[in-house]
Amino acid sequence: MNKMKIFCWLFLLCISQNLLAKDNRDRPLYKEASAPVEKRIDDLLSRMTLEEKVYQLNQYTAGRNNNINNVGEVEKVPAEIGSLIYFGSDSQLRNKLQRKAMEESRLGIPILFGYDVIHGFRTIYPISLGQACSWSPELVKKSCAVAAQEARRSGLDWTFSPMIDVARDGRWGRASEGYGEDPYTNAVFCVASVEGYQGGDMSNNQKIAACLKHYVGYGASEGGRDYVATEISRATLWNTYMPPYEAGVKAGAATLMSAFNDISGVPATSNHYTLTDVLKERWKHDGFVVSDWCAVEQLIPQGVAATKKEAALKSFMAGVEMDMLDNCYLKYLPELVNEGKVPVEKVDDAVKRVLRIKFRLGLFENPYTPESSEKERFLLPENLKTVENLAEESMVLLKNENKTLPLSQTSRIALIGPMAMDKENLLGAWFAHGEAQDVVSIYEGVQAEFKKSEVLYAKGCDFEGNDTTGFAEAFRVARKADIVLLCLGEKRKWSGENASRSTLALPHIQEKLVLELKKLGKPIVLLFSNGRPLELCRIEPAGSAIVELWQPGVMGGKAIAGILSGRVNPSGKLSMTFPYSTGQIPIYYSMRQSARPNQGKYQDIPNVPLYEFAYGLSYTTFQYGDLKANQTTLKRGDKLVLEIPVTNVGDRDGAETVHWFVSDPSCSISRPIKELKYFEKQVLKAGETKVFRFEVDLMRDFGYFDESGTRFLESGDYYISVKDKKLKVELTD
Ligand code: GLC
Fold first, then answer.
1. From CA 399, how far away is CA 402, in angstroms rounded?
2. pTM here?
C-alpha cells in the first residue's frame, strides 16, 4: 500500500513539475521578475504593436479635476494608456484603472500614475524657496521621503518634482517652487529631493519616481511673466541653468519635464540640443522626458509648428518621449511613422525609456497600491515632527532691533493682520492634497506657546482691497498690548503657476495698516508669509523685528511660535535676494561686474538690495576667525583645503551656515562677481568653536563652462570669500 502511495505522489509531482515548466516556457520573459530589466524590456517591446507603443507615450488625467482632458471615468480610459495624472488621494480609483490595464489589455502593461507632489502630499511642508533657506539638504531629503511615502501609499508612482529652475525675478510666481537664485543651491537641493523621493530602489513601496523640471531655463521668463520666451545665451545656459539638471541626472532622476519657455527662439519642448545632444548623448540619461501640460501643442502658438501633427513631429524628434494631455502623439505618431517621418527605432527607444521606469518602480510585480486608511498614512506624528523642523529652519530672522525677540512669556500680545488666523494660505501654491484644517495657524501656535500671556486678536484688514473699517479694532487691541505681532503676506494663489505680479509690494491696505499701527508707538514684529521676495522698503522701518515665514505648511504656526518664544533659535538665510524695490529687478548676488562699478546707478533709490542672498540673523552671535588655505600657490591637480573657525560668542546654542564663494576677477570671459560653491550648516553650542572646511575641486569650483558646455580652468588669481573674509590663491600653469 505504501509503495502505491509513493508512486501516486511521485506521479503527481512529475505532472505538476511538467505543468510548471510548461507554464514557465509559455510565460513571456518580460513577466519574469528574476530576468534582467533590459531583457524584459526587449522582450516586451518585441511583442508590441505600433499602436500599443504609441499609447505608452501618452498621458491623460484621471480623478477629481474637471480638466477637459480628464477622462476620469474608468470606462473611458484606454487599457493601454501609458500614464495618468492621478488626482485621487486614495488608491481605489487607481487600482480600478490599473486592473483594467493589467487584465483587459493584451500585454498587461501597468499604467504610471503621476501628480504634482511639490512640497508634500497631505503633510505639507514649506515651499521650496523656503526649504532652501534652511540650508539643510538632509532635512529636505527627509521631507521628500515623507511626501513619497504618503504619495505611493495613496496611488501614485511618480511626482512632477523637484522644480529646479534658477529664478532671479520675484515677479515670476513660480520662483516659489524652486530653490532660489543660485545654480549651486538648486543643484544641492535637487539631489536631496531626488534621493528623498526615489531612495536607492524605486520598487520600494514608499518611494516614487522624481521628475526634474522645467527643463530648461524657465526661470528666465522675461519680465517675470509666465509662459513667455526666454533669452539665454549658450554660456549662460551652461553656467546658470544647466548645473541643477546635470546634478539631478547624475543623482539618478528617473524623468524630466520639458518646459513651456522658448529658449532664444527654440522652444524647450522641441529643443534637440538640450533634450538629446545634452541630456541623452552627453549625460546619458536613460529615463524619459514628459512634456509639460499641452506643451507639445503649444509649439503652434510659439510659432514653430503650423499643425498638431507638425508639433508632434518636432517635439518627438527633439527628444520628448511622453506627451502630456494634448493627444498629439496619440493622434499623429502612427501616421508619422507610416509616412517614414519618424523612424520606428525612435519610437522603440522612447517606449523602452518609459518601460524602464515602470520596471524599476516594480509595477509589473506590484501594479496595485495596498489599501490603507487615511489615519494609517497621513499626518503621522514622526512626519509632522520632520516638517515642523524644516519649517523652523526655513524661517529667516531679517531684523531684531534691541533684541525685540524672543518675547517674554508674560507679554500681552496683540496678534493682528489677515494672516494671523489664516490656515489655507500657509500651505502655499501646489498644496496637493493638503487641507487647511491640518494647518496650525500663527494664532494657534502663539496661543499654545505663550500659555502665561494674554493673546489679543484683531484682523485689521483683508489681504487686499480698501476696507479700513477693521483698523479701529486693531488699534484698540494694540493699545492694550505690550507688543504687536503683525501677520501679513500673500494669498497662496498669488504665487505658483500663472501667478506673475507686476510688483513685489504687498497690497496698499496691508502697508497702510502697518504705518497706522506704527503711530501708536508700540513695538511691532512683522511676520510675513509669502511665495516670493517682497518689496518692504516702506514698511521695514516700522518693524522692530521682522521674520520671513515663507509658506511654511501644516506646522507653520508652531514653528514661528517656537521662534517668537526663543524655544527655537532661527537659523534661516535667504536663498533669494529681497530687492529694495521692484524697480531694482534683476538684482541677485552673482551679477557680473559693471564696466563702471561706481556709476550707472539708479538716481532715485539705493543700489543695494534690502536683504541680500544668504542673509539671516540668529539669537546668538557667530564670530568668524581667519580664513586659511593649506597652500595659496597651486598648480593643476593640487589639493586646496580651506578652513575657517567660527565661534558662537553668544549665550545660547545656535546653527550657523557658512557660505563659501569663489571669484575670478580676470578671465577669458567676464564672470559673476562671486559664485557660491559650497555651504555647510553646523550647530554650535554657546561658546563653542568649530572649524568649517571646504575641499576645493579646482575644475568644479574654479572652472566655468564655455558655450559648448566644455569646462575650462584658467590659471590666474582666484579669491575665496566667507562673510567679510577674503583670501587670494594663485593657480599657476
Ligand atoms: C503644469 C505645470 C507643471 C506641472 C504640470 C502637471 O502646467 O507647468 O509644473 O507639473 O502642469 O500638473
1. 10
2. 0.96
